[in-house]
Amino acid sequence: MTQRTERVQKLARQVLGEEIQELKDPRVGFATVTAVRITPDLRHARVFVSVLGTPEEVTATMAGLDSAKPHLRAELGRQVRMKYLPELVFELDDGAQEAQRLEEIFNRIHSNDPGEATAGPDHEDD
């Protein structure tokens, strides 16, 4: 990957992340752009988005983002100078959801063992 492609990906992630927060579509919930992967010819961009909420809210947010593609593409073109304006494809990045699920499991485990100290026997002060 060239430095230019990396730079464009970084800028696209920043611009799209900010613009998604500004969308007025009520379907779009709490969405964060986690990564942008642009093809070397700069014609296609896969935008990975982490969405918090119920499965229904996630589905609604993804639908809202799909309908906002023309606006988001135009903003990307306005703020990042490129020869071609890439086609945007939104993909759900469920890494944050998996982390949240694991955190909930850990919290349940800890709430069931209130007598346990946070540091285990392997963590003694020397």
Which descriptors apply to this entry?
126 residues; alpha+beta; GMP Synthetase, Chain A, domain 3; 3-stranded mixed beta sheet; elongated
Gist of the model:
This protein is an alpha+beta fold and 126 residues long. The chain has a single domain, classed as K homology (KH) domain (GMP Synthetase, Chain A, domain 3), CATH 3.30.300.
Fold-level CATH name: GMP Synthetase, Chain A, domain 3
Instruction: Give the class-level CATH name.
Output: Alpha Beta
Number of helices: 4
Query: What structural class do you assign from the helix and strand content?
Result: alpha+beta
What would the principal axes of the Cα set say about the shape?
Answer: elongated
Plain-language structure description:
- This protein is of the alpha+beta class and about 130 residues long.
- It has a single domain (about 5-105), classed as K homology (KH) domain (GMP Synthetase, Chain A, domain 3, 2-Layer Sandwich), CATH 3.30.300.
- Helices cover about 50% and strands about 20% of the residues.
- The protein is built from 4 helices and 3 strands.
- The chain has helices spanning about 5-20, 55-65, 70-80, 95-110, and strands spanning about 30-40, 45-50, 85-90.
- Strands 1-2-3 form a 3-stranded mixed β-sheet.
- A hairpin with a 5-residue loop joins strand 1 (about 30-40) and strand 2 (about 45-50).
- Helix 1 (about 5-20) packs across helix 3 (about 70-80).
- The longest helix is centred in the first third of the chain and has 20 residues, at about 5-20.
- The protein is elongated and about 60 Å long.
